[in-house]
Every structure is written in structure tokens, then in C-alpha cells.
Amino acid sequence: MTRNGTGVRRSIIEIQNDYDAGINNDLEKLMTAWAYIKALPPTDPNSYFMIGGYHGEPFAGEGATNPEWWGGYCNHQNVLFPTWHRVYVYMLEKALQTAPGCEDVMQPYWDETDSYSTTYGIPRALTAPKFTFKGEFPQCLRDKGIVPDDNNAIDNPLASFILPTKITDQVNNDDSVYSKPQGYQTVRYPLSGLVGTPQAQANTYAYNANFFDPNANIALLNANVLQWLNNVTYYIPGCGAGDGGTPRPAGIAKAFSDCLDAPIYTIFSNTQSAAYYGKGYTALEHPHNDIHLAVGGFNLPKGINNGGYDLSQLPDANGDMGENDTAGLDPIFFFHHCNIDRVFWLWQQKQGFTERFDIIEDSADPGTSNGFNGGNGQGPANGQTENETLTMTTALKPFIKTGTTYFTSEDCINIESQLNYTYSDGSLSQNDVVAAARAARAVDSKRSDLHLYISGLSRGGIKGSFIVGVYATKGDDKRYLVGYQSVLSRWDVGGCANCQAHLGISGVVSLNQYTEEEVSGMKFHLEIFGREKQNTERFKQFRTLVAADTPPYKLEVR
């Protein structure tokens, strides 16, 4: 679809609805393009294996073996997060357009905050096991050895990806846990994809055998995603605008809406810079991380915790979206990141930065460097130099613009004039009345400018990604969830020198729904939620320190 010569990226729900109504065959063309690039040889620059692997595995460059580097090209927890991923989705889209007959295909977005997603979960075009072609089956797919069944259906190319070749995790001291054999098929919650060692394979096969019904698995996945999207926290009794136990929005939907209020790009771009500037703004990376964990296999803690810990409902779930190592190999990744880019563009429009934005040069901001940064951040990605200051002209490797020149952030500010695409009118736009009502409620409930700042928390020894829950107590034994932070990590930081050098976690949680007097009578603490079986001793140590009132972190209200 084009508008005045500019390609229009539409919601996958829009495309699905048009197809169901017989309006057009855009969904068939999309499925064709995705099936086509997935069938290309793994060495083809337009193959999904090649493009999906840019994000993490298969690791390349210095990080292929040296754990002091990140072996993927992706940028997280720094100012290049929005722009690197913008160009990443753009290059995937160009690959889709190489499929014969699909030259005008545009990569759709999963509108994660529209009424469908917040009611039902993930659009079925991204989860259904099969896709049935209404018209003639594409010859370009037959040429690649893809043959439909008697119902003119194929395995849904958007539901998973089967590796055409093995991936070997050769990072020193990483125990090969993220190695994947040829023929491995990516998985989502509630399944596990850890198959890098014989023991991991045995554990995973035994666990996954409990989830043999694809439709039941999709239902579990959607239930988990809905919990994340629509999560609530609770007013503490006698505090705030609500009575004790009154819920207030605190899920992904609210976080996406909140990030649009960030006043400058540096704060908007990543969680580290947002925490550094201490203004209480939400970074785009916050809801981004949440979606990864929701699809990859984590449950949120309950809003009110009256004793004990809310362990993950399915502690062995380990979908590929849950860690950066393998996230890019699940097709849903690009529908998610297309939406991240759409929200990025909405922020630019709202804040007046469609033609220009800048990165604030501040050596103390951990989000503007890929160095050690006092224990924060990702570290140098593949293709970067160590201790590199990240700017608007930093090369967004490995994406070539022309010849041997790489894209930079300056090349992708205005998506319409520089990259020739735009977005359809989805949720959170100026025409979205639901988002407007949500913003109005947030203003009405504001009672102060207070925030709780988190620092000093280490992810050392914690296997995999996890969630930091922020709880408050006041005069009783009930622990009320006031916020949380998703932490995208790799599986074994104990054997990862890069992770050990970048172990610090910082964050901020808004307390503006309470007055200064109300907050003065509260006591706050953190809880960790993650892979319980793999982190028994580490979590026990953490909880023992918290219970002894000697917490291994620092909390500050200001």
C-alpha cells in the first residue's frame, strides 16, 4: 500500500481484517514474502537466517568467542536503540520486497496497544499454525520447494522459524547453552528452547512434552501477554486517589503511552539515559523489554503480595524472544519492532522532532557510551570499538546505505523523506481517543513529582532475563506492587565477562500518585522474579539479604 508515492506500513490486524472481508490479498503477499526469504540459502544476504542473525546469534566478530564483547550487532540500553532497530526493520522490509510479485510488500506492525491486542492478545496471523491461500499458490514458493497441502495451506511463516543450519555458541565459558541444531524450530511461551547441551535437551524435551496442543499453547501465550499489557498496581490503603486495593493502570499499554511524553531523544531512547537524567520519564525501551519477556516466557508478579513469592507459573518456559541471543530469529520480533518504530515516529511527531533530534553529549550518561559505564549498559556490539562514544554519526553496522557507507542515525530521522515509508493511523496516535482518556486519567491522579530511583542492583549470577518488582508496605504486612522493570539479559552471566563488567541495573518508578506525606510513611523493597529452578541459590541469597534489612541495592525517593 502506498500514499502519495510513500509506502504505508499497516497493522497486521488491518491486513488480516481486509483479507477476511475479501477486500484485497495483501495478507497472501505478506505470507509469500516471508516464506520466500525464510527459504533462501542461509548465506544469501536477503535470507531470514542472515538478517535475523544480525541481532544476536550466530555471533560474529570479536564477540563470537570473546565474552568481553557482545557478539550481535544490536544496540540496547544506549542512545542507538531506536535508530539501529529502525534501520534493521527497514532492511528486513527490503528483503521481503525481493520475493517475486511482492515488490510492494510493506512490513506490518503488531499494534500492541490497540483494542484487539489488549482484549485478545497476539493477532492470529502471527500465531496460527497454518495459513491457507485463497488464490493460486505462488510459483516462487514452489520454486523454493514449498508445496501446499490438500487445503492449499502451508505452515504459517510468521509463527516460527526452522534453522537451516546449526548455530554453535562458542563464547568462552558460556557452556554452549545457546547452541541450536539444524532443524531447530523457534518457540514462544509456554515452551522452552534451551537445547545447547545434552542435559538441556533432555530437560527441554521432557518439559515441552507437556504442551502438545498448539491451540492450547496459543491460549496460554495470549493469556500471559494480556497480563503484561493490562497489568495494574494498587493504591496503598488510605493513600492516593483510590481506596485501598483500588487498581491503577501500570502495564505495557500505559508504558507506551507514557514514553511519548519524554521531552528529548536521549531520555526517550533508552532505559539507562532515562534513569540517569532522573526526571521520571519512561523510555521507549521499557515497554519494548516487557513485550520480549511476555512472549519469551515470564509471568508478572501479582499486584498484592500477602506472603511468599509469586513464582513464575511456568518456570521452565524459555521462548526465543526472552533473551537477546535468539530474539531476532522469531518472526514476531519484526512485527514487534515495527511497532516500536511506529511509536518512535509518533513521539517525533508529538515532540516536534521529525526533521531533527540530537544526542546529548554527556560522558557521565551511561547510555551514550558502549564502555564499562560504571557497570551499566550492553557493552560494545559487533563492529564497534571499545569505549566508543555513541553519536548521531556512529555507524549503524552492518547496514550499508550506499557502496561501503553505513547508515547512521542522521540518515533515518524522517522516515517519510529519508526512507520513503510511513504508518497507518493506529493506537496512541492523535486520533486515538482511548490513549487520550488514559493520559487524562494520569494527569487527574497526579499528587506529587516524587519518584523512586533504583541503583546498585547486580545481575551477576542470575541466569537469563528477569523482572525486578518494586514493592511498598505501610503499617501492615501486605506488600503492594508500585512498579517493575524488565531486564533483558543473556542466559549465563556467571560465565560472561561482558555481563560481569556491565552488571549494574538502574531504574526509576513513579510515585506521583501519592503525596509527599503519604510517601514518607512507606517502606520500599525489591523482589526478583525469573527462572526459579536455575537461580535457586542466587535468589535465596538475595531474599535473605532483603529480609535482614541489608538489601544488595540502593533505593532513593526524590
From TrEMBL:
It comes from the Bacteria. It holds the Pfam family Tyrosinase. Keywords: Copper, Metal-binding. Residues 76-93, 330-341 form the Tyrosinase copper-binding domain. SUPFAM superfamilies: Di-copper centre-containing domain. Residues 364-386 are annotated as: Disordered. The keyword Metal-binding applies. This is Tyrosinase family protein. It comes from Chitinophaga hostae. The lineage of its organism: Bacteria, Pseudomonadati, Bacteroidota, Chitinophagia, Chitinophagales.
